[in-house]
Design a protein that fits this description.
Helix content: 25-40%
CATH architecture of the largest domain: 3-Layer(aba) Sandwich
Number of domains: 2
Largest sheet: 6 strands, parallel
Strand content: 15-25%
Shape: globular
CATH topology of the largest domain: Rossmann fold
Length: about 350
Amino acid sequence: MRGFTVLLLLLFISGNSYAETAPLKIGFVYIGPVGDHGWNYQHDQARLALEKEFGDRIKTTYVENVPESADAQRVFTQLAKTGHKLIFATSFGYMNPVAKTAKRFPQVIFEQVNGYKQSRNMTIYQAKTYEALFVSGYLAASMSKTGKVGYLGTFPIATVIRDINATKLGMSLANPKAELKVVWLSTWYDPVKETDATNLLIDQGVDVVLQQTDSTAPTQVAQRRGAYAIGLSSDMAEYGPDAHLFTVMTDWTSYYTQQTREVLAGKWKPVPYWGGFKENTVFLSPFNKVIPQALQTKAKKLIADISAGRLHPFQGPIWDNKGVLRIPQGQQASIDDIATMNWLVKGVK
């Protein structure tokens, strides 16, 4: 009995440290295919980087094409039951299934992208893509000949809304009269819908298209139609060498490495993470040479100012598209305001 008691004490002291036990099993759940060459692809590249960094100290698993439904909770439950001690949920719609699963498995650590619910064993992590979309909007309006820019929206959630707003605010910096037309697709990944929506926008006079969606379809359509495109998550230059201006890139490698290291050391804590230009979680891929050098220089200055805190994309005064003053003169949106943004800025159509 004494030996058994000592064993229990040792297990308790070791906490969540896996440095001297079996490999730490890490699970990743994706909303779409890892081959989308967009959002899911970029998360999976970070997963592969983890395997290279930690070797046999960890073992990773991924499940792709998991819908944001009851199916998601079954997937998270199965991962927890099969010994995965760290699970990354890489889509906003997984938040409620993750929260429910986290309560059932208090010894498993869950990390939710773009969410807002937290608990003792669940935290959130987000990319400040709105910083990059502000610069993208500036460049899009500067490159547009028609003054009409299009945006493929997915769902009207805070993550998407703030990116659309940042795009329009950046556009206004370059051309206050430039129009931003948004098409809502109600999907993260559907090349057919993305193709149709991009064609629709171009038919309406749009000559620069941005996307919140995951496929390369918008870039490919822009290439065929003689328009410009700005990609998201992964570099899409090869799919439209003439059309592709650049991509708003996200790199999760540093964050996943940091979190894995803390779990292995037994030091993990549920601390929210926001990574932007400064943290290199968000950056822009190389510019297409079609963008004038002076414009590239201006964009790099904007990036430097945002990184240093001299410029904030949501700097007042900012009105919504119903005429309500949302951010007064001399004020900046707080991180809480940005995390819960549910209104569109003036000029978004």
